Amino acid sequence: MKRILLLLAVSMGFINCQAQQTLTTIGGWNAYVHLPHDYNNGQNKTYPVIIAFPGLGEVGTDASKLLINSPSSYIAKGWNGNVYVDGDSTRFIIISIQPTSAYPGETAINSRLATILSTYRCGDVTLNGFSHGGWCAKTFITG
Questions:
Q1: Tens digit of each residue's pLDDT (9 = 90 or more) over 46-77
Q2: Are 93 and 39 in contact (CB under 8 A)?
Q3: How far is CA 139 from the centre of its chain?
Q4: What DSSP string describes 97-118?
Q5: Separation of alpha carbons 142 and 137, rounded Å
Q6: pLDDT at 65
Q7: Is 22 in contact with 32 (CB distance < 8 Å)?
Q8: Percentage of the chain surpassing pLDDT 90?
Q9: Angle formed at CA 82 by CA 73 and CA 100, multiple of 5 degrees
């Protein structure tokens, strides 16, 4: 009986810890993509999107660094990507994208964001990032 309960507890823990996001590449940059649970239900609904750029310490080709200080780190820890305000839920597409080198040019950032917007059913766009990530967001906006 103890083995069955232990196995059940381990199985339930494993299910709860599974990532709700997919590691992919967008224009050669690593990206963790989280889609809302009802994204593939056959409707053509758009969703607000949060696009997160990493800080300088997370730039490069080691995708695991995107799980340190980004919205994807919270997804990996079990957050479902929903935000509740006054009892209403908003479901987001959440993408953490990793430039391969520091301070990518405007064209490089713009092409990745254009790919995101044409690949996913994005509504309102929110860009965020720490330090270097904020610079990337500003470069897109001012470009």
A1: 999 999 999 999 999 999 999 999 999 999 99
A2: yes
A3: 20
A4: EE-SSSS--HHHHHHHHHHHHH
A5: 9
A6: 96
A7: yes
A8: 76
A9: 35
